[in-house]
Amino acid sequence: MIYFDNAATSFPKAPGVADAIAKFIAEDAANPGRAGHRMAVRAEEMLDALRLKLARLFNVAKHNRIIFTLNGTDALNMGIKGLLGTSANEGTVPHVITTVLEHNSVSRPLQSLADRGAIELTRVECDQEGFVAPADIEAAIQANTRLVIMTHASNVLGTVQDITAVGQLVRERDLLFFVDAAQTAGVIPIDIQTMNIDILALPGHKSLLGPTGTGVLYVGDRCPRPHLDHFNPWREGGTGGDSSTPTQPPI
Length: 251
Ligand SMILES: Cc1ncc(COP(=O)(O)O)c(C=O)c1O
Known about the structure:
The protein is α/β, with parallel strands linked by helices and 251 residues long. It folds into 2 domains: 14-58, no CATH class; 64-219, Type I PLP-dependent aspartate aminotransferase-like (Major domain) (Aspartate Aminotransferase, domain 2, 3-Layer(aba) Sandwich). It is built from 6 helices and 7 strands. It has a 7-stranded mixed β-sheet, with helices on both faces. Helix 4 links the parallel strand 2 and strand 3 (120-124). Helix 3 runs parallel beside helix 4 (104-115). The longest helix has 21 residues, at 38-58. It starts with 16 loop residues before the first helix and ends in a 32-residue tail after the last strand. The structure holds pyridoxal-5'-phosphate (PLP). The site of pyridoxal-5'-phosphate has 13 residues, from helix 3.
């Protein structure tokens, strides 16, 4: 068999992944952070060791700012709704800039926030080659702009965006920069410090070659503390087959 669906999820996984999961289930599968017994402590140490590895990979200074999620969609929803659904939004409607290249897991949560009047949304166009010009993002900034959120690489076109240039201009304006690295984490180097990334979301199961059901959200110090329980539905994103509506299709 030749497997051609690595952008959706990678196969085969990295050597040792299956053995490590089997070993964990057989020997260490306690609940991390929920108990003080030896197995639970060991499970917690494993999570922390992984946070440190991810911190090294993405040049994160504080590894405790890394959260584990179910996948990329989960990380993106958590970040978007955590950041934009706070009670601090009351009275002002924050403006959010995104691009036309976003995956449903960015596009749909933003659209549903905009439909509820929680944000004002601008989608910056790309050129005919599939690239978003940083100058177009800069031109979209308004007095109430709070966040720029964009994909590092388009899952449809494969075009890699100049997030270093965007990060620089976003930081100069003292806004927050949120990057969806679903298609690049593990393939293209990402340095959250030199790229001025405040929030980074990625799956563990694509090019990091990890197991299904893994994702990562980094939330930097410049972000207000997220309040994560304000929204229903909590998870919105690709259905795998139906992209005909701008928000999540009803079940
Ligand atoms: C650009 C992009 N963002 C987000 C996602 C969602 O990631 P996941 O499949 O881990 O939910 C994908 C998945 O293909 C993607 O390509």
